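FAQ: What does the model actually see?

It sees only this:
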Amino acid sequence: MNTSRTKNKMRPVWHVLFIGLITVLCLTVALAGERPCEWTGIKKIIAIGDLHGDYENFVEILKGVQLVDDSLHWIGGDIHFVQTGDILDRGPEARKIFDLIRRLETEAEEAGGMVHMLIGNHEEINITGIAFSYVGYVTVEQFISFLPEKFKEKREEEFRKKFEEKSSDSTNSDISYEAELRNYWAELLKENREAQRKYTNNFNEEYGKWIIEHNAAIKINDIVFVHGGISKIYSKEKIKVINNQLRYELDALRIAWKQRRQSLRFKTRIVHEPKGPLWYRGLAEENEGFVAELEQILKNLEANYMVVAHTPRIGSRIATEKYMSRYDGRIWIIDTGISEFYGGFLSALIIEDGGFEIWLSGGGDEN
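And it is asked to produce this:
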């Protein structure tokens, strides 16, 4: 009996069975994690755009629009609060933002309100393990914050011993342990595949699976909220279908990364797609000739307005309603560069009784 040939024949069968099992598991997770994505009769909505790791500015906005008190507990009552994704990358404290939102979700629900944290493209690339392909996205502080504790402790102990040996042989008394340690983590962030894998797997275990339970797009009253935007081709699908498909794809890619597999046996329809809801920029960038297509998109979605982020509105006219809205107020773009990475321009969109109002830190200048 040719054992080698038998094994080669069996391997594809087991491979197919394994892929099938993973597919079933992902679909089960997607459906189990399904949550409502449409609400009507909501009196007041507050929406905040990309945060990119800026916890302090996020807190300032929450206090400014009176969603939380000085102790950062929910005081928003029955308000629906929407954060449109991209909590991760470029800034240092995404983990603190996630932890705060996690708690506010519970507190808001108990008070009759709701917190909607949407999935952005930066959440997507961290879950799928490709964030390190984008230089500068994952900051050193974010990298450290999501590493497993035991891995960090082991690496820091190794570094400490080498630092002490180096310091004892050096006449330079100005060597800073903290600065050198940060440089050490920065090198691991850039070049160490083991550390990158530890980061991604631990992030997914502690936060990624929770993020995947959330929606990419929601509709409140007659307004669609989404990170990038919904293009014409995706507007033909129900929002519920978009959310379920994204959850399915993200969870499959999360498992594939954990299993050290480089690809899936199916083609993704939403993840990494330029015209998908997490990446699409057309609503922020197309010219006025786009009106007819926009009308069709909104008609397909049975909506009158769409609120998006993703494409920063940064400039001297950022405070004006004209600069943040397009197409006679049908589209609102609320990524105003809240993170210090972009300049820290703090804003929120308040929607009440059918009207849209811009909140700005310090009152702003709308002239």
